[in-house]
Specification:
The structure is a single chain. Helices cover 51% and strands 20% of the residues. It is of the alpha/beta class. The chain has an eight-stranded mixed β-barrel with strand order 1-2-4-5-6-7-8-9, surrounded by five helices. β1 and β2 form a beta hairpin. It binds ligand C2E and magnesium ion (MG) (3 copies). Ligand C2E binds next to β2 and β6.
């Protein structure tokens, strides 16, 4: 009976697996179509400088306007897309769109940086840097207008490639950020080798900073570590005034989070910024 059960489980597993694979294929096909039909849009999450209360940047966060299912958040499709070369097309779409929208910001008199989330697959594309450069200069913008964010788990997947590509990007003038710091597989040794401009402390540490002494100590240590390696430190997921007070006392440089505002589409971002 046990053998039959385990056979049954195996069949179910295979069916499950097949169904999953089929779903993935459908998803990738839909993504391809949606890139062509421009069925994506970006929302912007501002980055605030705690020193002077100025908005110094905004992170572009992708949303999928699915023809039938409506708005879908990136957590539900990016992980699948990142496993395939299609992530390159999607990243180029994000770069193009954020160039257009950065120019709208400039026309509105708002001079800030835009952060873009990239992934290891992007670094494996040999034309990545050239392509970015072309798109950006076609829009009369410069690499220094952008900040490229990568997570530490991403980087550890292939540390040698990451080291080479990130220093090329850095030399080309892009700012480089280490995203979700503290949650991935990290090694302190790569921190000193890679050309990071900023380190983003993940929201899981920020959320309970004023309730849990341990979280506060961890964030304090992360901020010091960031400063030692010459980085600006960004706190992610700031939702309360108390959190800001704590982060100020720990000499954190920048904050992001729903306390400032939820992510906004470009027109709303411009309105919001004018009233800020
Ligand atoms: P991330 O880069 O770490 O972005 C931060 C995520 O945390 C965003 O979720 C943001 O909306 C959310 N967040 C920020 N502040 C707060 C807060 O105070 N409270 C709460 N509850 N949430 C907050 P989102 O937009 O769903 O993005 C999730 C992840 O998807 C991003 O994490 C990033 O890894 C990925 N992603 C988003 N856009 C892109 C993209 O264009 N390309 C790629 N490759 N990945 C993207
Ligand atoms: Mg990010
Ligand atoms: Mg993050
Ligand atoms: Mg994240």
């Amino acid at each position: 009976k046990e053998a039959r059960d385990s056979n049954q489980t195996l069949i179910e597993y295979k069916n499950d697996y097949r169904e999953k694979e089929e779903n993935n294929l459908i998803l990738l096909g839909e993504i391809k179509d949606s890139i062509q039909n421009d069925d994506f849009f970006l929302k912007y999450l501002p980055k605030l400088d705690l020193k002077n209360n100025e908005i110094i940047g905004a992170e572009a966060l992708i949303r999928w306007n699915h023809p039938e299912k409506g708005q879908i958040s990136p957590g539900l499709f990016i992980p699948q897309v990142e496993k395939t070369a299609l992530i390159n097309d999607l990243t180029y779409w994000v770069v193009k769109k954020s160039c257009q929208e950065l120019n709208q910001l400039k026309e509105a008199g708002i001079d800030i940086n835009i952060s873009i989330n990239i992934t290891p697959r992007n670094l494996l594309d040999n034309n990545f840097i050239d392509n970015l450069f072309k798109i950006i200069s076609n829009h009369d913008l410069r690499p220094a207008d952008f900040d490229l964010e990568l997570t530490e788990t991403d980087i550890m997947q292939d540390i040698d490639t990451a080291a080479i590509k990130l220093s090329e990007l850095s030399q080309a003038g892009f700012n480089i950020s280490l995203d979700d710091f503290g949650t991935g597989y990290s090694s302190l040794s790569y921190l000193k080798e890679l050309p990071f401009n900023s380190l983003k402390v993940d929201q899981i540490f920020i959320k309970d900073i004023y309730q849990k002494p341990k979280s506060k100590e961890i964030v304090s240590a992360a901020i010091k570590l960031g400063h030692i390696i010459g980085c600006q430190v960004v706190a992610e997921g700031v939702e309360t005034e108390q959190t800001i007070t704590e982060l100020n006392s720990l000499k954190c440089d920048y904050i992001q989070g729903f306390y400032i505002t939820e992510p906004l589409v470009i027109a709303d971002f411009i309105d919001w910024h004018h009233n800020y």
